[in-house]
């Protein structure tokens, strides 16, 4: 397992390094990026011209996504938005493709759903918010199923999907981390899925020192960790000499930037005897808890929903994202103009052709 992980990580690191600046590898791939950009522009133009069908629901739809390959903190943003809107007594539903799941159907994400069938991020969103969450390859199908089961829903948040043009959206939120737009090239010469800048309702930076305009959010770790059975322990206790376990700590992460998680743990005073960086969305099917039985395992919440079946005593630390108040105020203003006084969640274009 470790050899395959190392080879995969080495290749991803090489490409990630090339995407940070316009070096030889980026320029070598630049002609291919022109083809990619032309095809993306053609696809977007066909949607605008009506050749490809755009399907809509009679509710406000917020798409939270990014234009840069790799995780930028979208899922914590979705969780923060759902909680904010729930605090406003709004009934919010979430739809997602469910990246990496083995099932291809449309289904609801429930507390007992197999993560392999619904995806790690939708499972985490449902666990963290208790909001109705549906996954489908075509987001419109997920929205239709959500409204059929929860007709009182007032608005929908789409987790990822800025490039999923077949679903109509009322608001677009683009999330950036500390990478910004990298070298500014399109794939594969750079990290961009589409040219930037482009029109966007809201831009949110989850990393420090934004390179361009937008709102900001602060990312911190929760001050506690939890296990599969709901047991909790403060990080201070986990780091201290009175910890229930005397085993050294093994921190693992299968996220876009695992080293960031490890650094945040160390900043909380935890001494990490070992770290294990795994590919993003790693399924943990080949993970052997016996191999690491000499350690106390600590991981992210996103990893825990997949790891706990194999290692129920692993400790998961939540990642808390707090958008600045100005961002939430602006979001509320935009939503107030969209929300009807008495929402009627009926679907339009129910038989339209959806193309991704």
Model description:
This protein folds into two domains: 49-219 and 321-336, 3-Layer(aba) Sandwich (Rossmann fold); 223-317. The protein has ten helices and 15 strands. It is 33% helix and 19% strand. It is an alpha/beta fold and 356 residues long. The two termini are 33 Å apart. The longest helix has 26 residues, at 24-49. It has helices at residues 2-18, 24-49, 74-87, 115-118, 120-129, 139-149, 235-239, 258-267, 301-307, 325-336; strands at 61-65, 92-96, 107-109, 133-135, 155-159, 171-176, 202-205, 215-221, 224-226, 232-234, 249-253, 272-277, 296-300, 315-317, 319-323.
Task: Give a short summary of the structure.
With 356 residues, this protein is α/β, with parallel strands linked by helices.
- In whole angstroms, the N-to-C terminal distance is 33 Å
**Cross-sheet strand order for the largest sheet:** 3-4-2-5-1-6-7-8-15
Estimate percent helicity: 25-40%
Radius of gyration: 21 Å
Mean pLDDT score: 90
CATH topology annotation of the largest domain? Rossmann fold
Write down the oligomeric state. Answer: single chain
Largest sheet entry: 9 strands, mixed
Morphology call: globular
> In the CATH classification, which architecture of the largest domain applies?
3-Layer(aba) Sandwich
Secondary structural class: alpha/beta
For the record, the count of structural domains works out to 2
Tally of alpha and pi helices: 10
Strand content: 15-25%
CATH first level of the largest domain: Alpha Beta
Number of strands: 15
Instruction: Give start-end ranges of low-pLDDT stretches.
Output: 348-356
N-to-C SSE series? Answer: HHEHEEHHEHEEEEEEHEHEEHEEH
């Amino acid at each position: 397992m470790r050899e395959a992980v190392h080879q995969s990580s080495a290749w991803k690191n090489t490409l990630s390094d090339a995407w940070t600046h316009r070096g030889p590898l980026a320029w070598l791939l630049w002609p291919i990026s022109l083809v990619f950009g032309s095809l993306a522009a053609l696809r977007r133009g066909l949607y605008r011209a009506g050749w490809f069908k755009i399907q809509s629901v009679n509710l406000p739809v917020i798409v939270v996504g990014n234009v840069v390959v790799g995780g930028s903190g979208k899922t914590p943003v979705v969780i923060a938005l759902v909680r904010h809107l729930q605090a406003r007594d709004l009934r919010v539903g979430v739809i997602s493709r469910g990246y990496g799941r083995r099932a291809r159907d449309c289904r609801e994400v429930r507390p007992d759903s197999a993560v392999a069938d619904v995806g790690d991020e939708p499972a985490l969103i449902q666990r963290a918010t208790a909001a109705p969450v549906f996954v489908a390859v075509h987001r419109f199908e997920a929205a239709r199923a959500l409204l059929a089961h929860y007709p009182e829903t007032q608005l929908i948040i789409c987790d990822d999907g800025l490039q999923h043009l077949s679903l109509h959206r009322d608001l677009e939120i683009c999330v950036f981390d500390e990478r910004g737009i990298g070298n500014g090239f399109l794939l594969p010469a750079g990290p961009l899925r589409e040219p930037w800048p482009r029109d966007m309702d809201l831009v949110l930076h989850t990393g420090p020192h934004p390179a361009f305009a937008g709102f900001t959010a602060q990312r911190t770790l929760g001050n506690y960790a939890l296990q599969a059975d709901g047991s909790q322990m403060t990080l201070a206790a986990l780091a201290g000499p009175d910890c229930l376990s005397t085993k050294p700590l093994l921190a693992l992460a299968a996220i876009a930037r695992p080293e960031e998680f490890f650094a945040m743990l160390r900043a909380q005073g935890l001494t990490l005897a070992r770290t294990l960086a795994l590919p993003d969305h790693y399924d943990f099917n080949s993970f052997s808890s016996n191999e690491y039985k000499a350690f106390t395992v600590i991981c992210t919440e996103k990893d825990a929903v997949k790891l706990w079946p194999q290692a129920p005593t692993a400790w998961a630390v939540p990642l808390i994202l707090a958008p600045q108040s100005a961002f939430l105020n602006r979001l509320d203003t935009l939503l107030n103009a969209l929300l009807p006084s008495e929402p009627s969640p009926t679907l339009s274009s129910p038989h339209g052709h959806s193309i991704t």
